[in-house]
Amino acid sequence: MNEALQLLSSPVGWALYFVCAVLIGMSKTGIQNIGTLAVPLFAFLFGAKYSTGIILILLCIADLVAVIYYRKEFLWGEVKKLLPASLFGLIVGLLLGNYINDKVFKLLIGICIIVGVGIMIWLGKTSQQKQDKLTKNRWYSPVFGFILGFSTMIGNAAGPALSVYMLSKRLNKISFAATSAWFIMLLNFTKIPLQAFVWHNLTWAGLYLNLFAIPFILLGGYIGIKIVKILPEKKFRMLIMTLVVISAILLIVL
Predict the structure, then answer these.
(1) How many whole angstroms separate alpha carbon 149 and alpha carbon 156?
(2) What does the DSSP 8-state code read for residue 94?
(3) Which of 43, 119, 130, 176: CA 20 to 30 A from 165?
(4) Containing domain of residue 223, as a range?
(5) Contact 254, 40 (CB under 8 A)
(6) What one-character DSSP code corresponds to residue 137?
(7) What percent of the chain has pLDDT over 70?
(8) What distance in Å separates the CA atoms of residue 106 and residue 41, rounded to the nearest whole number?
(9) Number of structural domains in the chain
């Protein structure tokens, strides 16, 4: 327990950590990508690669809250289209991450987020008819699946690309949140043994630290559910796009 307390040495660090927990809770229950704002903050607090182990357990806890709440709303068909290629992306990210230093690791996280932003901008300039035609291609879901698997393994940074995919499918806000939560949960729980036994960045100290954050994750989950219920569809989509851009900028700056 003492080792867990030593991971954060200042009141500011603890405050940032709890704010990140609230953001993660909100992201899992509806405000997709607000949790991506926590990625650069965690990299700042713990170092880029080690932070992926700290944040992973928080994400898994928040995933459970989200899938329990959205257990009847997700679209298994969309999850099934993404899953095979995303598992391949996980393995590629796992192998690559084992041979790079923390500085390059942070750069890769930033690139993953920027790629998501770039795809979003590109789709925004494409007509709805062309978007619909594009999403029906056989390669569309596997390409996104690989990007999602790789980016979540490298830095829990799949949010932007996942948002782009779900927005391009024109899902309503509830289906968007539910399907995203179930898909990411499957990936995150798959990552636990990989990060524990290959990267060795899951520690008991990190796990104990995560216990302090559970109330803040639940608070964030509650806030996310309330916001989704009152936010109109158009404003919901605009909020998602804005958060993607902000998270990319934060990672570059920090």
Answers:
(1) 9
(2) H
(3) 43
(4) 2-253
(5) yes
(6) S
(7) 89
(8) 12
(9) 1
Does the pLDDT value for residue 203 go beyond 80? yes
Higher pLDDT, 111 or 212: 212
Retrieve residue 56's tokens: 């992973």
Q: What average pLDDT does the chain have?
A: 82
| CA angle (20, 25, 26) in 5-degree steps | 95
3-state DSSP percent of the chain in helix, strand and coil, to 5:
85, 0, 15
| Nearest-angstrom CA–CA distance, 203 and 220 | 24
Q: What is the CA radius of gyration of the chain?
A: 17
Rounded Cα gap, residues 57 and 157, in angstroms: 15
- Interacting residues of 175 by C-beta distance below 8 A, sequence separation 6+: 73, 74, 75
111 in Cβ contact with 161 (< 8 Å): no
Contact predicate 145/92, CB 8 Å = no
Q: What is the pLDDT of residue 31?
A: 77
Counted residue by residue, the chain has a size of 254
Give burial (CB, 10 Å; 0-12/13-18/19+) of 138. Answer: exposed
Q: Where are the strands (E) in the chain, listed by range?
A: none
